[in-house]
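Cytochrome c oxidase subunit 5A, mitochondrial
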Amino acid sequence: MLRIFTSRVASVVETAARANLSATSIVSRRCMSKHVVESEEEFDARYESFFNRPDIDGWEVRKAMNDIHADDLVPEPKIVIAALKACRRINDYALAVRYLEAIKDKTGPKQGEIWPYMLKELQPTLSELGISTPEEMGYDKPEFASESVYDMH
């Protein structure tokens, strides 16, 4: 009789403990997540305002550019315009050209669709700031490229 009583009490305690454990683990999983879902407009506004800061320095510009480049996206032209103007404020022409190269590379297999659109949107800013595109500077072709040894006569 005592054996039956203790086994039933143990069963009830075990069931209660499992229910409590599962409820606790669900709550703790919810509390551990700090990921905030950010809309595209909020993302654009955040980086645009970051690049438009008047006291931005070279390290911060490079850090933000690397953060954007690490994301799986091609930034909107308004973000690129703000980044190019930040490059101009810190007087770093090479960074501006390299960023344009990175944006072109980021377009990937859709380069024929996205890159002309980006250039069309960026052209007034590029003219205003006096920044040449990598194609205008000849950076789209290797400088010391030689023809293939199989094509030589």
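thats it. The chain has a mean pLDDT of 84. Helices lie at 2-32, 40-51, 58-70, 77-89, 93-106, 111-129, 134-137. bye
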